[in-house]
UniProtKB/TrEMBL annotation:
This is 5-formyltetrahydrofolate cyclo-ligase. InterPro entries: FTHF_cligase, FTHF_cligase-like_sf, NagB/RpiA_transferase-like. It is an enzyme of class 6 (ligase). It comes from the Bacteria. The keyword ATP-binding applies.
């Protein structure tokens, strides 16, 4: 059973996203997805850069040398955080079936945009889900129990279900936690940790 979350504090810093506090209401994923997508689209380049720097400062100490890590490439038109400045060897997602909502993780240093504008690896070595020690997950939002809101296609739920139970699932979000997500389903895979610009949440 998951315990009540705890917060790992960092140095205090100005709250750059007070407007997102209004999202601390119980809402369904579709509503949250619409609101947070709109809020994120309105962030300035400087605001995105500030939040990205803060998130990376929390994330780097959590990635142990020698760990097998799945990361992700930012989608520029969605103003996602870029993890490209992280040092190390990372696998990246590539869709294997849009109909089935499945993907694989691949070691590669060559990428091309999919028809959705998502950078995906070309060629490379496919890593089995059971090999990963850590999976970094892009988020639109999350709540205080570690439930996630992504883009609604279920790719990560299907992939995480095949990972080892001890694989550390870390969500990355530009915004702080919501109070609750109303329509969590049985197949939804919760996070172990989430990182936002002001703090790290540990749900374990």
């Amino acid at each position: 059973m998951r315990q009540k979350y705890k917060i790992i504090p960092n140095i205090s810093r100005e709250d750059l996203y007070s407007e997102s506090k209004s999202l601390g209401l119980n809402m369904k994923k579709a509503e949250i997805r619409k609101i947070v997508t709109a809020e994120r689209s309105q962030l300035s380049e400087q605001a995105c850069a500030d939040r990205e720097a803060a998130i990376l400062s929390y994330l780097r100490p959590l990635l142990s040398e020698g760990s097998i890590i799945a990361s992700f490439k930012a989608i520029p038109h969605r103003k996602e955080i870029s993890l490209d400045s992280l040092e190390g060897s990372f696998a990246f997602p590539r869709v294997t079936s849009e109909v089935a909502g499945t993907m694989e993780m691949v070691y590669s240093d060559q990428f091309a945009n999919s028809r959705w504008g998502i950078p995906e690896p070309i060629g490379g070595h496919v890593v089995e889900p059971t090999e990963f020690d850590v999976v970094l997950i892009p988020l639109l939002a999350f709540d205080v129990k570690g439930h996630r809101v992504g883009y609604g296609k279920g790719f990560y739920d299907r992939y995480l279900a095949a990972c080892r139970p001890d694989c550390l699932k870390i969500g990355i979000s530009f915004f702080d936690s919501l109070a609750s997500i109303d329509d969590v389903e049985a197949h939804d895979i919760a996070l172990d940790m989430a990182i936002c610009p002001t703090q790290v949440y540990d749900f374990r």
